[in-house]
Amino acid sequence: MKQAHFFYHPISVFRWALAVTAFAGLASCSNISTSMNAIGANITPIKQLTPQQKDSTVYIQGKIEKYIPLLGKHAYQLNDSTGSIVVLTNQKGFKVGEQAVFKGQLRYKSIPLAGQEKGEVYIEEK
Predict the structure, then answer these.
(1) Which of 97, 50, 89, 51 is nearest to 68 (CA)?
(2) Is 6 buried (19+), middle (13-18) or exposed (0-12) by CB count in 10 A?
(3) Does residue 50 register a pLDDT over 70?
(4) How far, in Å, CA of 28 to CA of 82, rounded?
(5) What is the pLDDT of residue 115?
């Protein structure tokens, strides 16, 4: 009685093809933090947002870290592995740990303290 070679077994071929496809998919994601793309929009890493870009429209994507309730608005602290930023919005219902994408105006709030600038950038969604 002749035994079938291991490589030609249909389940083994399927597993091998699945492993190769998974490896190729992971290899193609090597530089995801600098050029993310969601819903056809260029996502800006939070680390790259500066006060000099004030009033420009940006898209950001990340995980909701905190919910900050405000009167008439909602604020969320968003983290994208390069940094964190506060997003001011009318949208509600986001939960901590959820992924979210926001489009908004980059704002800067100056906070002079003891002769030093301690201001922060944030996103205001319209």
Answers:
(1) 89
(2) exposed
(3) yes
(4) 20
(5) 83
Q: Which residue has the higher pLDDT, 19 or 60?
A: 60
Distance CA 8, CA 5 (A): 6
Domains and CATH numbers, the chain: 37-124 (2.40.50.140)
pLDDT given at position 75: 94
Q: How far apart are CA 62 and CA 53, in angstroms?
A: 20
Contact 121, 55 (CB under 8 A): no
Residue 101: CB partners within 8 Å, gap ≥ 6?
Answer: 38, 39, 41, 43, 59, 60, 61
Identify which of 76, 84, 75, 77 has the alpha carbon closest to the alpha carbon of residue 46.
Answer: 84
Q: Give DSSP secondary structure letters for 59-78.
A: EEEEEEEEEEE-SSSEEEEE
Mean of the pLDDT values across residues 51-59? 92
Contact call for residues 96 and 66 (beta carbons, < 8 A): yes
